[in-house]
Amino acid sequence: MSATVLILLGWVMLSLLSLAISMVALLTMYSLARLANQGTHAVWLWLLAIVLTIGVPLLIAAWKHSQTPQKIKTTMAWLPSVWNSGALVIAILLVPDLVGTTLRGAEWVVQGRLGDTHTATRALSAFGHEAADAIDPGGGEFPAPVIEDTRVALDGDIVVPFKEQGSAIFLPVTLEGHDGRHVELDYLFDTGASYTTITSETARTLGIAVPVDAPSLQFNTASGPRESRMVHLPALRLGDVRIPGLLVSVCDSCATDSAGGLLGLNVMREFLVQMDYQGSRMRLLPRIHEGRPNRAYDIAPTLTMQVEGRPEIWLGRIRWVVTMTNNGTVAVEHAMPRVDFEGGPRLYGEPVERIEPGETGRSLLVGQVVEDGEDGEDIEFTLMLVEAYW
């Protein structure tokens, strides 16, 4: 009697193992089919996956034991596991990159119903990435942005005369607003100011609205820290160089009888600066951008970034969604966040193509943050914006 029970228990375990392997193969086959046939309806992809993982073993069993139907049931207890295990091994050997991509996206099974921030979604993603790395190492993380290769125009230098009053240096600039409006003012060159400033009156003259809920920022100046609202300036011209799309601080107290405001680092970082005090002039060597200049420095204060849900770590890995809310008045394009872990790696998020004013973009961020066996419970991290355009 005990031998019979053991045999039955063995068949049950074998059937469960076969079922588990078949389910893994079914999901893998469906994911591979979906990856290879983006435009095909899901019903047909599911049908194809069912036929390949369950239908074919059933047909083989039916053909082999057509005269003894009882043996078909017995064969189906083990044949699907052998069939599907072999199919998975062949797929791993022939197309490891596709299988790896499929496993790294395994969270889709629960993501649609439970959401991105659910523990099950993050755990399944971590297990999928662990399995994928064993098959196709080195994939699954979003690549770092291409570092913009800027060069200095040595033959295009601009000599800007300045008025020296004591230790202060004043430069003539042209501020461009909306509808062709512009203002020419002398500005104080302030290496302690992170951002260029304008006054409320200048903003009105240029047609720039200053919303009550505009993002505010505390920045450093030569006279100490200040906090003010930040707005988008269409362009600033210094000499013959026009710098489009700047974030400026609305600071009335930053203007004086001699200066309309402070010329901050977000302008001067576009130049290599050489000072000639005896000649009362400044030599500016403009940086030449091969494409659109990366405006992450200017755009970052207008975006509120945070990890959606609890920042959990599974198997030393993360699958986070970083939300970016545009608090400014101008749409932001191709916004890419980065998370820096203390003593750990830097991971980059998926670029968000466009975030309209007042709207929130969501960027997926995945990767390994701690080595196997390390404790990642209290790991500290910092979010920052590394690429964005106006």
Tags for this model:
19 strands; Cathepsin D, subunit A, domain 1; 8-stranded mixed beta sheet; 390 residues; Immunoglobulin-like; elongated; alpha+beta
Rg from C-alpha positions? Answer: 31 Å
H/E series, N to C?
HHHHHHHEEEEEEHEEEEHEEHEEEEEEE
Mean pLDDT: 83
| Distance separating the two termini | 78 Å
> What is the H level of CATH, i.e. the homologous superfamily of the largest domain?
Acid Proteases
The poorly predicted ranges are none
Structural class: alpha+beta
Instruction: Compute the number of strand runs.
Output: 19
CATH class of the largest domain: Mainly Beta
Describe this structure in words.
With 390 residues, the protein is of the alpha+beta class. It has three domains: 2-135, no CATH class; 151-288, Beta Barrel (Cathepsin D, subunit A, domain 1); 297-389, Immunoglobulin-like (Sandwich), CATH 2.60.40.10. The protein has ten helices and 19 strands. Strands 3, 4, 5, 6, 7, 8, 9 and 10 form an eight-stranded mixed sheet that branches. Helix 1 packs parallel to helix 4 (79-94), helix 1 (2-36) crosses helix 5 (96-104) and helix 2 crosses helix 4 (79-94). The N and C termini lie far apart (78 Å).
